[in-house]
Amino acid sequence: MQDETLTADDRDFVTALASGLEVIQAFDEDTPRMTLSEVAAKTDMNRARARRFLLTLHALGYVRKQQRHFELAPKALQLGYAFLSANNYRSVIQQYLEDITAEIGESSSLGVLDGNEVIYVARSSAKHRLMAITLSVGTRLPAAYTSMGRVLLSQLPDEELARYLEQVKLEPHTERSITDTAQLRNCLEQVRQQGYSIVDQELDPGLRSLAVPAFDANGKLLGAINISTNAARIDFDTLTQSFLPLLQDKVQLIQTHVS
Q1: Spatial distance between the Cα atoms of 235 and 23, rounded to a whole number of angstroms
Q2: Domains in the chain, ordered, with CATH?
Q3: Once rounded to an integer, what is the mean pLDDT over residues 116-133?
Q4: Entry pTM
Q5: C-alpha distances in Å from residue 246, one per residue of 103, 207, 210
Q6: CB atoms within 10 A of CB 244
Q7: 3-class secondary structure, 89
Q8: Percent of the chain with pLDDT over 70
Q9: How far apart are CA 191 and CA 212, in angstroms?
Q10: Phi and psi for 228 in degrees, rounded to 5?
């Protein structure tokens, strides 16, 4: 099998599997419980098709039905646990994230790239809250506007990065957000050269973050590790002179202990 991504038109593409996963992903923090009509609308399916997938997922134990409403069942957690258990480096990195929080009192996370988003796969939270939304394992944020996302994008091969830049939609989240593709390309090139990324209030006002790539002992990219701070509390000098060396030390230790 060649290492390539199928398209929906490919004969090996299983449409039913893709649709079933789409139904599972339709349930989120904003819509944890939905009617059949709501699921159909959110997944852009007709009611009959959405009903078949919901009833199949219900029969398999991934969805619960309460009168007119559907919601994910605890068994759905197995899908996430399968990823975490298959990537046993997470427990090692979790300890380093907690060490960072203990040393500087700031939140630290590990993220991986998933399409146009960065997904949190490990996190150590500080007591103070940084964003209106709650950041936790499983949270997805646009890669273009996060320090972890930019680090991970900068690690893509040139062809993959070019494809990403051709199709990504840049939308302003704050007045500081980059909305020009050429500017983002230049930013990612700078991140690639310097080995770290700082994003200052482009996703959420007051949120300033720093990230570096993390590799295993064989040089395989594990993800990006960040430190998230409040812009009013932590200045750039602290980020670059204090927090950056700390992150770099931690990823060196990770590379030593994860094979």
Answers
A1: 43
A2: 15-76 (1.10.10.10), 87-257 (3.30.450.40)
A3: 82
A4: 0.69
A5: 9, 19, 11
A6: 19
A7: helix
A8: 92
A9: 9
A10: -105, 135
